[in-house]
Design brief:
- This protein is an all-alpha fold and about 80 residues long.
- Helices cover about 30% and strands about 0% of the residues.
- It has helices spanning about 30-40, 60-70.
Length: about 80
């Protein structure tokens, strides 16, 4: 995200990775970036309250993440 630039006012500071039941499974080195993607609405985790960082992502997951990213950084509507 730092390479494309974004409007920090669009971040939802009320969202935190602390809400995930499996926070311990998110690598310490990745937590700040995961929280940024969560606050940007790019990554959302599972409906079960887990982030599931070790679960595989299929094409539809990646397509949804890419779409939310491109919308967030104003590359598409």
């Amino acid at each position: 995200m730092q390479y494309v630039g974004y409007d920090k006012q669009k971040l939802d500071a009320g969202k935190s990775i602390q809400e995930y039941k499996d926070l311990h499974a998110i690598g310490i080195w990745a937590r700040d970036d995961v929280e940024l993607l969560l606050q940007a609405g790019i990554m959302k985790g599972r409906e079960t309250g887990q982030f599931a960082p070790r679960e595989p992502a299929n094409r539809s997951h990646i397509a949804a993440i890419l779409n939310r990213f491109l919308v967030f950084v104003d590359y598409m509507n």
